[in-house]
Every structure is written in structure tokens, then in C-alpha cells.
């Protein structure tokens, strides 16, 4: 017997319809690519998204077509998302930090028909356009006054293009399981793989992130996604904030410490989210220049492990609680978040910090397990580590155009490629990417844990640990450190700092200071490049 309730498909346009109806006047503030701040509302964003949809329709874009965006977080980028999804087409976010060949690869693979791009990327795309045969039209996200002279075929300023349509349009009536968004994983090896989100998965995922022990968004929040829309849906915030009726602040292209501080404080942001490197830069800026974050009530940090020193700095110095989150493009992306269950609540801050440094537990909508290499489930005892596998309402089932490739185990779980422990209270701790874990004498050393500890040293700005070949132990850890400006910590001093904090056999065999560490397109330490750079490195212990 079927239930007798209404069929109300979970479609992305419903989110902006709701925001416009119930929170229509709420501010959407952006730092524009042209420079000045720009202010609009959910009501206007919806109205312009309807015009985007109508105008795309006139350009012949149909249900299921891919429409790409190469853009910073601004109101215009937001409008294009809702407009594209609103005619049943698929927004494909292109990450500008990918290598040029990868951008060409993913756009051809996706067969993008239109590209919306920011002014910043016009020179880049001019170089690539000859290799993008499927793109029929380039729409530059600016007005006529700022439109540069360009060799891009069929290029037009967004505002002129948009002015040719009114908002008298009905959102496409598509199935909630229809494709709505496409994001390629920035894998460090092999070709990028396309994760194809549906309307339903995005709406359910956003609903899940709004919940109190997740991001806990409300109509009284002002939300700033520093995490880009092109990084796994900006962790859902472009959907979750309007769904909650929260105001939105879009930081545009300026993501350095000073600019982030400036917009956080001037726009009185209450909730923000980004990868650790953004927060390293903000904290360094505040250390140097001073300042306070009186309006910020929490900060979500994820995408890479958040060192306890960063959590402590936010919480103790600036009184801003940290929410450590874990996830991946294939999970839309949120997989877990470190809320505090009553079981682990304590007055002892050191103990609480130990919990907060974990990647937390799953929200409703995600299930997980850890297994050994044969797929046998391992205990949740906080000590045994295994492959972390997930399933849920917003987890990938297949990759785009690789539908014949099975990526789930027989119970329907997806292997995240992460190695983790889960404790009795449900808190998960990522040990490493399975390919980054250091194998020393048959035992595993967590590079993440060593990195987390090293950045706790007052002279260290960033740290990476990689395994270096060793004749006796197979591999031993090498600590690579970027010192803070004007500091030069000694090798022995750094090792002495680690000594009381780790098991003896985890001690790095050597330390090198470097001016910078390479990052992936989504801000993670690029271990493959470091391994390549140090492939001939001889450890002093390798005799
Ligand atoms: P991406 O799909 O580019 O977002 O990358 C996903 C990967 O980032 C995960 O599989 C993890 O290896 C890593 N990651 C994300 N969040 C965290 C976190 N909080 N701690 C450690 N690693 C993380």
C-alpha cells in the first residue's frame, strides 16, 4: 500500500522559491570581481535566476545539457546556478586552479555548451577556447562597461545577455532524480572523474547540513562560504543558506587573510566555512595586525585535517567555536562534522580539544564503516584503523560517463580512499589518505597527525610529512616545514617539540625547511609533488 501524501519533488529551484517567498528581503552581499561591494536580496536573485533560465532556453539549452561556470563566489554565480538547474540543465563548476589541460579535459568530457566566466578568467579561457569545440557561447559575468575586448567566440557581457529576457518563466518540471550539477574530482593521479549530483541529492544534502549539530543555520545567521562554489558545491552553502533563510556574503576573488578579515567583520558574518589554509592566513593576519571576531559564532573547517592549534587559536583567542568537518566531492561533500555529543562533553578543555580535532560523526543521511583490505568490517574502538567506506542520500553511485564501472561494494558502500579509526562514541579520525600513510617496519605512521602537531610549534606556518624510502624500515617520515615569516626554527628544536607528543618510532628521521608547500586545486597538500621533489632525498638514518 502506498502512502497518500503529496508528491513534492525535491528540486533545486524550490530552494530559491522558498527563500524569496519567506525571506525575500534577506541580503545577499558580494565583493564583486570589478571591485565594489554589491548588495541584492533572495527575491532579486530568484527573479534574475528566472531570467537566466528563460534566456538559456532561448539559446537552445535543453534538459540535461551541461552549462559550465568558471567563477568566484558572487551573486551572479549564484543566479546562474539556480537558472541552469531551473531549466533542468546541469551546472558544471570548473575549478580554475586545475591545470589548463585538466580544464580542457573536463570541459570536453562534460561537453559543456555554454561557459559563464568571470573577468579574471578571460585571458585563461582565450588561450583554451580553440580546444573547447563544444562551447557555443561565452558569457562574461560583468556588464557592458567592464566588458574587455576579447577573442572569445560569441562572447557577451552577462548583464546585456540577461537584459534580453524577463522573469516570466516556469521552472522546468523534471524528475527529482534528474542530474542538476557536475563537479570533477581533483584527483592527483589519473583523469578527473565527474560526480553528477541530482536535484534530490543536493536538496537532501543541504537539509542535512542545516541541522543544529551540523552547520546549524537559521534565519538569524549571516553565512559566508569562503569555500568556492567550484569546490564541491561550496559544501552546500549556496543551497543551505537560502533554505534556512540565512543571509549570504560572497567573498568574490579576494581570499587572502586581510580581505577575509575585512569582509567577515564589516558584513558581520556569523557562520563561515573554508579549508585550513584560508584560516592559517586569517590567523596570521590577526596575529600581526590584531583584531577580533565579535559576530562570528562558529567556523567550519574541513577539506584537510584541521590542526588542534588552529582550533585552539579560534576558540581561546577569538572565542569562536570550531566545527571540524570531513567529506569529499563524491559525498556532495559533507560526510561528518564534529558536533559535541553529551557523552563527550567535558569541562576539561584539553580533552574536549582531543574530540574536536577528530573529523566527528555522521549526520542523518550518511552511514559508514571501516574495513580491512578484504572488506571485513573492523571494530569501532578508536584504535583499529581501516578503509573508510560510506553510503547515503548524497553519495555517488557511479561516475559520469563511466557508468559501467562498479564503485560500490556489495553492501552499497563507496570506498573513500581514506584510512580512519572510529571510536565507541562514533567519532572518526582520519589517519591518512590510504596512499599517503607511511609504512614503517610493517606499522603505519599517520602523516596527518605529525603535521597537526608540527603546526602547533610557534614558528611553523605549515607542515607536511611524507615517507622516504629507508633500507631497514621500508619508509621513514620526513618533516617538511614552511616557517612563519622571519623565523627559522632549528631541526633539533622542532624534533624536541614533537618528542613528548608522539611514540618514539613516529619521530621524523629528518626535517627540511622550505619556502612553500604545493597545494592541489582544492587546497590540500600535494603529496605527489612533494614525493617527486624529495625522491632522491637520503635520510641521515639510512646508513
Ligand atoms: P575532495 O573531494 O577534493 O574534497 O577531497 C576529499 C578528501 O579530502 C577526503 O577523502 C580526505 O582525504 C580529505 N579531507 C577532507 N576533509 C578532511 C578532514 N577534515 N580531515 C582530513 N582529511 C580531509
Structural commentary:
The chain is an alpha/beta fold and 543 residues long. The chain has three domains: 187 residues, ANL, N-terminal domain (Rossmann fold, 3-Layer(aba) Sandwich); 181 residues, ANL, N-terminal domain (Rossmann fold); 96 residues, GMP Synthetase, Chain A, domain 3 (2-Layer Sandwich). Helices cover 28% and strands 23% of the residues. An eight-stranded mixed beta sheet has the order 2-1-11-10-12-13-14-15, with helices on both faces. A seven-stranded mixed beta sheet has the order 7-6-5-3-4-8-9, sandwiched between helices. Helix 10 links the parallel strand 12 and strand 13. The model has no long low-confidence stretch (mean pLDDT 96). Bound molecules: adenosine monophosphate. Adenosine monophosphate binds next to strand 14, strand 18 and strand 19.
Q: What is the structure about, briefly put?
A:
The chain has 543 residues and is an alpha/beta fold. The protein is 28% helix and 23% strand. It has 3 domains: 12-198, Rossmann fold (3-Layer(aba) Sandwich), CATH 3.40.50.12780; 254-434, ANL, N-terminal domain (Rossmann fold, 3-Layer(aba) Sandwich), CATH 3.40.50; 438-533, 2-Layer Sandwich (GMP Synthetase, Chain A, domain 3).
